[in-house]
Design a protein that fits this description.
The structure holds two protein chains of two kinds. Chain A is mainly alpha-helical. Chain A has ten helices and no strands. The longest helix of chain A has 10 residues, at 14-23. The chains are: A mainly alpha, B little secondary structure.
Chain lengths: 154, 21
């Protein structure tokens, strides 16, 4: 019963999370020690109904964590295309980059998550953006041998 | 029901293990 709001978000426990919010509404966008919000936890763990619930309550999908991680990058890295689509409908920065110059598209390509790659491309993700190490999405797909990723990008 | 604690989300290093371009 003493799980944090972030843990409840990751577990998709909407009713328990709602109890926390009823006591302290500021928890909605509270950031943990690394700067992750409940929405980021839900996005990272693929909890789509929780993502929708938090957004409906007014959670800010544009918040960045301490090393500039975003909910969109977390969902893309996890391969959760439905959540990627929901976040893209909420006006997030599609090309936000973080501590190693990763963008949502780079994470989707790295994880070989084709549906996420295509959702991001459909919404105009910058295909030329290179990671700090100089890899563009196409170069990354080739280096990792992700054929489908290459096809989507090309 | 007891929920197990998840570890904090993290993003993988994009190019770990790949040759420098």
């Amino acid at each position: 019963d003493n799980l944090s709001i972030h843990q409840l978000a990751a577990h998709g426990e909407i009713s328990q999370l709602e109890v926390h919010l009823s006591k302290d509404s500021s928890l909605l966008n509270s950031q943990d020690e690394r700067g992750f919000t409940p929405l980021m936890w839900a996005a990272a763990f693929g909890e789509i109904m929780m993502v929708e619930f938090l957004l409906q309550k007014g959670a800010d999908p544009r918040t960045l964590a301490r090393e500039r991680e975003s909910a969109l990058s977390l969902a893309s890295a996890g391969g959760f295309a439905d959540i990627v689509n929901i976040l893209l409908q909420h006006g997030v920065d599609i090309d936000s980059y973080d501590w190693n110059g990763g963008t949502p598209l780079l994470y989707a390509v790295r994880g070989n998550h084709i549906k996420c790659v295509e959702a991001l491309l459909r919404c105009g993700a910058d295909i030329t953006f290179e990671a700090d190490s100089g890899y563009s999405p196409v170069a990354l797909a080739v280096a990792l041998g992700h054929k489908k990723g290459q096809e989507s990008l090309l | 029901s007891q929920l197990s604690l998840y570890t904090s989300p993290s993003l993988p290093n994009i190019t770990l293990g790949l040759p420098a371009t």
